Every structure is written in structure tokens, then in C-alpha cells.
Amino acid sequence: MKREIVQTLDGSTTIYLPEWNENYHSKHGAIQEAYHVFIKNGFSLLKEKNQSILEIGFGTGLNAFITFLEAKKCNIQVVYHGVEAYPVEFNEIAQMNYVQQLDAKEFESDFKKMHDSTWNQPIEISPEFKLTKRKQFFNEIDDVESFDLIYFDAFGYRVQPELWSTEIFRKMHTALKPGGILVTYAARGVVKRSMIEVGFTVEKLAGPPGKREMFRATKRLI
Questions:
Q1: Helices (DSSP H) in 82-165: which residue ranges?
Q2: Is 184 left (phi over 0), alpha (psi -120 to 50) or beta?
């Protein structure tokens, strides 16, 4: 499938798939979306100093890199698992401008290390951030009460509805610890119904720039 590097409205880059008319990140601002959906409405709510995060759709590594920066700033220890079935090519990663846009030149080697690291092997990116990139399909995830937070950043329902099924959200619910949360840019009624069916409590929140709403789902405490 053809892939093009494009610039989003906040100046940060993303990958565009013409065949699907789909972007890896919001065309209204890749970095803005990541901060709003995953940091403001997810990571910032975590109160403990040791956190485990599962990302559904590792993609360009933007969400992981921003979380790495936030963990360092807040002195939080993060164990991060990023799941991706179709890894982005190195030549494409080299064209992403996240280090420059985030004014994070001193951490450029850490961003590269995330992408140079071997798949399915844990690696310490820094004392605050341990990363495991998992090359697997989402329906193969079988973690049980392992994560405090899930970033659900799959391609949109319009192009891959199977990634937003009750089956997948049941796996997400099982993977979370009691009280854990899942955040996603999505706000479709069919997605909310699947989340509720597997036991999540779902909140509709204000979305990132260019999107009116988003969801945050919480696994009830036992």
C-alpha cells in the first residue's frame, strides 16, 4: 500500500495512506492530538510513580516518545508495550520531525533507539522508560490485568472496523488492571456499545483540534 509523508496543521508530520484516505495521526495536528487524547486525558491521570502502558498501534512512535518525555518530566517510571502488526519503515521514521517540533533535540538518540530496538525484546530507553515493541496482530493480545493505561490508536473504524469489535475490546478489558483506563480518539456509537458490552464505564470527552469528541473507558474496580 502506497504511503506518503505529509505535514499536519500543527507542523508535525504523519503518514498518509491514499488508498484508504487515512492518516496515522490527525491531519489537524499529530502532536496536538497525541497530547490531548493520550497525555491530557490518559497519562496525566495516573497518580502512582510506576505505570504500565499498552499502546494499540505503535506506528511512528509519536505517542511513545511523548510519553517518554512526560515520564522524564514527571519522574514517573513507565513500562511501555507498543503493539504493531505492520512496522513503519526506517526511511519513513527518518522523515518524521517530532524531535524538532517537540524541541527535544537532546533526546533525539532516545527516539532513534526506540525504532532501532529489536521487536519483541524489552529495552531500557532511559531509567524512567522501559519499552517492548510487540510485532503482533491485535486479536493475538492475551495479557491479563497487566496495564494501568491503554492508548487505543488503531486505524479508524471507517477503514478497519474489525479493530474496533467487541472481541478486541474484551481483550483490552482483560489486559487492564482493575481501575485501569483506556483512551482513544474515537467517538462512534458502535464503539461505545462494544466497550460497554465488555464491562467498561465510558465517558465522552471533548476531542482534540478538528474532532468534537473522544472516549475514555474505565475498568471498574473489583
A1: 90-93, 98-101, 108-116
A2: beta
Q: Is residue 46's pLDDT more than 90?
A: no
pLDDT at res. 39: 98
Quote the CA–CA distance of 144 and 129 in Å, as a whole number. Answer: 21
pLDDT digits (tens, 9 = 90+) for 123-176: 999 999 999 999 999 999 999 999 999 999 999 999 999 999 999 999 999 999
Please indicate, yes or no, if residue 15 is contained in any of the structural domains. Answer: no
Q: What is the CATH number of the domain that holds 204?
A: 3.40.50.150
Does residue 24 lie within any of the structural domains?
no
* CB within 8 Å of 181: residues ≥ 6 apart: 42, 45, 148, 149, 150, 216, 217, 218, 219
Q: What is the extent of the structural domain holding 43?
A: 30-219
